[in-house]
Amino acid sequence: MKVLLVDDDPLFLELSKTFLELFHNIKSDTVNSAQEALERLENESYDVVVSDYDMPIMDGITFLKTIRDRSIDIPFIMFTGVSKEDVIHKAIENGVNSFIQKIGDPKAQYSELSKKIWQAVNSGAG
Question: Where in the sequence is 4-aspartylphosphate found (predicted)?
């Protein structure tokens, strides 16, 4: 299984990659923009996209819409510090598979993220 992690914060990307690979045995690639992620999705195969919401140029909702508009059939998990109801609602409207907030204990966050990744892959959601 391979996950594409998308976040404009390079330190957070490395932390995410480390937690998922070392503690949850989930291989991942990282990119720091939605545009770069779209290029990767055209050229490589991934099982799940995990994306932040609050990114410059293209936010997570626009990124999700673009993936769905291009008929890229892949589970999409939004992993973000933003907890606004309208963002959550828009994500659901546009076909997000899961929404996880970046708050609290990192170990618990990544345990939850890992569960959502495995659920998305095993259910064939996307």
Answer: 52
Judge whether 80 lies within some domain.
Answer: yes
Per the DSSP assignment, residues forming a β-bridge with 60 are none
CATH, residue 68: 3.40.50.2300
Cβ atoms of 77 and 117 within 8 Å: the answer is: yes
Domain count, the chain: 1
Task: Measure the CA–CA gap between 126 and 7, rounded to whole angstroms.
Answer: 20
Question: Given pLDDT bands bounded at 50, 70 and 90, which one contains residue 124?
Answer: low
8 Å CB contact between 29 and 123: no
Amino acid letter, 87: V
pTM of the model: 0.93
Identify the helix (H) or strand (E) that includes residue 38. helix 34-43
